[in-house]
Description:
Blueprint: H1 2-59, E1 67-69, E2 72-73, H2 79-93, E3 97-102, E4 105-110, E5 117-118, H3 120-129, H4 136-149, E6 151-153, E7 157-158, H5 161-172, E8 183-187, E9 190-194, E10 199-202, H6 204-216, E11 225-226, E12 229-232, H7 239-246, E13 254-257, E14 260-263, E15 268-271, H8 275-281, E16 288-296, E17 312-320, H9 326-339, E18 343-344, E19 349-351, H10 352-356, E20 367-372, E21 375-380, H11 385-397, E22 401-404, E23 431-433, E24 440-447, E25 450-457, E26 465-475, E27 479-490, E28 493-506
Parallel strand pairs: 1-6, 3-11
Antiparallel strand pairs: 1-2, 3-4, 5-7, 8-9, 9-16, 10-12, 13-14, 15-16, 17-25, 18-24, 19-23, 20-21, 22-23, 24-25, 26-27, 27-28
Amino acid sequence: MEILKEKLEKQINNQTNELTISNITNSKFDILKVFTIFSILFIIVLTIIFSIITIMNANNKNIINGIYVKNLNISGLTKEQAKQKISEYINSSIPEEIKLVCQDFETSISTSQLEIKFDADEAVEIAYKFGRTGNIFENNYTILEALFSKIFINPAFSINKEQLINSLKDISNKLPNKLIDSNYYIEDNNLILTSGSEGYSIKIEECANYIIDNINNLTILNNPLQLILEKQYPSKINIEKIYNELHKNPIDAYYTQNPYKIHPSENGLDFAISIDEAKNLLNEEKEQYSIPLKVLYPNVTTNMIGTEAFPDLLSEFSTNYDASNRNRTTNLILASNKINGTVLMPGDTFSYNKVVGERTIAAGYKEAPIYVNGKVEDGLGGGICQITTTLYNAALYANLDIIERSNHQFIPSYSKASLDATVVYGAIDFKFKNNRDYPIKIICFVSNGIANFKIFGIKTENDYEVQLSSKITKTTSSYIYSEAYKTLKKNGNVINTKILSKDTYKRH
């Protein structure tokens, strides 16, 4: 009985196992069928989407969706539309001035000076190529990627960094709490030393890069930028270094013949006290110190070089004066003596008022007739404009550049119209420039009713024969109008004629 029971249970178990295995097998088959169906459907959908994207991309002439330049969406735009939209966006994001602040200090930098440029054209070309430069699979992948995750393009950016740095340096010098470094200057034969004070300066390179980043990110509109500062301390006064910079021995003037060259004299400079005495002055804590100086004069000045160094007479001009008028004659002599011997190096400018100086009683000038508001009155230094006129004509005949010249109120007796020159100390000057390749020397004298000026130098192949002329162009009941001309000739042939001046004189 027990044996029969065991056989029966074993048989039932075998049948049960067979049934379970059969069910599992059927279940796996069903899942595989479903997966296969879904896979096929997924492939079909992907194929359809791929085909749609391929067809759309093939017919699309605009920028694909999901493309941004900076934060600006340019999806679906043509190239021209995108360029215009980007330009408008960038222009609207850059103000006329970049505001910079530091505590209560505010300033700005003009953006027009910085030459800010964004390459919208290049950015659009890059944007347009997305989805077009690879094979069909790569292009479609790019289109899907842009659609779901967006693609950002930063256009090429340039700026005049040198100008920005220069602007920041200028601003740094204007900070209200800026560093004042120790310094020195000369005033009335005294060396003035200043100890300076601590302060702040802009960290130029770091601040420039910070501003550039904000411009590139278009974050400067209505957004004042903080200046980046650093604290600095003034350097200590180095009296020995200052002495070495200032001290200079005088140099005598001399000239050489081969090659011909004038070496002008130079004054020297030295402390009027010893360096140790100067150091002792600095022991006291002060904001400013004063050290006396002395000028060291050369033994031979430039004006002392003889006429042998100026072998050629370049021009000469004379005017006549009334020697019986002693006061006026004295004034002529004083003015001419100041000018006599003056040497001008190439490029130097002669200033009549600077060379002759102020006409004062202390300088020996006398009262003599002058023109005042259209009337003849006695005035200090009267008559010296005859010296100006004589020198003016000599400079013209030497073909020198006239820098500044004014005519008299009336045509003077010693000159033709438009060939005169007047001066008033502190108001009207007469200036000319040595435009020649070599130095020139002015020699003049006033004697026996003649004021004579000669200009010496070295003649060259580039020199011309100079002719001067003038004419009255119009007269009225109150005025006389005139013009002066300079003609240049070479080997007897006229090279050119130019007008020197057009002048108006009052009638006596």
